Amino acid sequence: MSLILPKQFEELNAFTEKWAKGTENDRQKARITSTSEELKAFYDAIMPRMKEILEFLDTYEYGKLPEEHQPLYWLAMSLAEVAPHVELYDCDPGVPFAFEEARFVAEHGSQANV
Amino acid sequence: MTEAVALRWANKYPELGGDPIPVKPYVSNSVYDEEVEKIFKKTWLKVGRVEEIPKKGDYKVKRLSFAKTSVILIRGKDDVIRGFHNTCSHRGNKVVVETGGDETFGNSKAAVVTCRFHGWVYDAKGDLVDVPEEEKFHPCFAKEDNGLTKIRTEVWEGFIFVNLDTTGTQTVEEYLGDMGNHLSGFPYGQMEDVFAYNTELNCNWKVAHDAFAEAYHVATIHAGSFPNVFGSGLQDLQLLGDHRTAAVCLTNNAKPKPAAALATSMTGASLINFKEKTMLPDSVNPENRKDFAFELTVIFPNILVHISEGLWFTHQFWPMGPDKTRWEGKYYLPKVNTYSERWAQQFAVTLQRNAWLEDTATMEDTQEALESGSKEVMHLQDEEIMLRHGFQVVEKYLKQGAEK
């Protein structure tokens, strides 16, 4: 699948390889294996564009997003995974003072968001 | 603060007393064995929701490892959900292969299950309907005497309950009693988006249960995911038979950060933001408090049901051994209609998952520390009264055996 974003979001193309992941499990893994700097760089780049991204996605009926735009959706979903770490956990890639994430099973975790 | 205010629940329920509770039930193998026999094999246990097996012929197999069995829950052509031990009447193979581990789902258009070993077929009423080479069995064998072994199964408000006590006669509605009235009427089935997590914890089931049955820990344990969220203590606490319930009231003084503010503008999927009361039963948050976050209800013995405006969630604790517990956390939200709502929903779910990671972080340490034998009792404060009640209900069952 092409990981090229729509023209108006092209400055985020640099983040798709790492963050355009379709499942909660893959996004969680990307976050845990990132450095604090990577989390911050991704957050800082995408957060100011979030409103526009969601408006763009909402031009499609829910569940009918063309495959070519899935990477943009998945980037936004990765922000939902990453934002608490930047906004609340001082850019710690893990959840501080938490149970081992690898032992915590998300029953929906391998379903791709479409 | 006067003493009367400080100990408001002890004043309401003086019969519970104020003594510390013993550590022994959390670390004793013999107490665990007794709890399995006298509580878990005698009481109604929630094992599913009707939405999990929506069509005729859908089935779910739920492992009940404390009882060394699994229950097949199957929806018949008559739309009735029945439960059976997953044990073939022939030579005891599991009828449904449990490929899903603790929970396996399947569907049979004919509403039957077939044992893979020799092909015995059972219908959704548990009757044995086909035996290959039936004519070669001896005259003492009769199909009609060899159906699946039934497990008492009932549905209340869409929750599927089973009871392993073959001699009991109490219905699940009678078992829930006044707590059933308190929680009925909430639109459980309308929250169709389910986010479920589970793990196996190396701790006693009560260590896990207790950690979720008080709000005293919010300011410390959740300082990360829910900072500047202040509890005003439990409200409207009621001890109803073996069950217990209270409102958890939280004031969110955190100034929302950008992503949180964006999500909150699109969804009510977060627990800690005030919402007007539209769907809660009358008896829940009766005074319409503005700081009401959710109702925390413990249905004895092993499930916490929390209802809130526009969402609900459960924690359940399955004993697997004296120091081993399967925890299941499920968060139920209304179906979304747009991509932006789905994003905001995911943001709320992620924070909730992280909060549950914070909750479960203490449990194995607690178990290890209790097993050191260095402490014989634990002191509970007034806001931990639900643990005190829980301890006393367990004691009652162990002393008297289960009530029928």
Task: Give the SSE map.
The complex is a heterodimer of chains A (114) and B (404).
Chain A (H helix, E strand, L loop, with lengths): L15 H4 L4 H9 L3 H11 L3 H8 L12 H18 L17 E2 L8
Helix pairs in contact in A: 2-5, 3-5
Chain B lengths: L2 H4 L1 H5 L8 E2 L1 H4 L1 H12 L4 E5 L8 E7 L4 E7 L5 E5 L17 E5 L4 E3 L6 E3 L4 E3 L19 E7 L2 E5 L8 H5 L1 H6 L9 E9 L3 H8 L5 H4 L7 E12 L2 E10 L5 H7 L27 E8 L3 E6 L2 E11 L2 E10 L5 H22 L2 H9 L5 E2 L6 H16 L4
Antiparallel strand pairs in B: 1-19, 2-11, 3-4, 3-6, 4-5, 5-10, 7-8, 8-9, 10-11, 12-18, 13-14, 14-15, 15-16, 16-17, 17-18
Helix pairs in contact in B: 9-10
Number of domains of chain A: 1
Quaternary structure state of the chains depicted: heterodimer
CATH fold type of the largest domain in chain B: Naphthalene 1,2-dioxygenase Alpha Subunit, Chain A, domain 1
Work out the helicity level of chain A: 40-55%
Unreliable runs of chain B, pLDDT <50, ≥5 residues?
none
Topology, number of strands of chain B: 19
Radius of gyration of chain A: 14 Å
Chain pair forming the biggest interface: A-B, 35 and 39 residues
- The counted number of beta strands of chain A is 1
Percent of sequence in beta strands of chain A: under 5%
CATH class placement of the largest domain in chain B: Alpha Beta
Secondary structure class of chain A reads mainly alpha
How many DSSP H or I helices of chain A? 5
Overall geometry of chain A = globular
Widest β-sheet, arrangement of strands of chain B: 2-11-10-5-4-3-6
CATH architectural type of the largest domain in chain B: Alpha-Beta Complex
**Apparent shape of chain B:** globular
Helical percentage of chain B:
25-40%
Taking all Cα atoms into account, the compactness measure Rg of chain B is: 23 Å
How much β-strand is present in the residues of chain B?
A: 25-35%
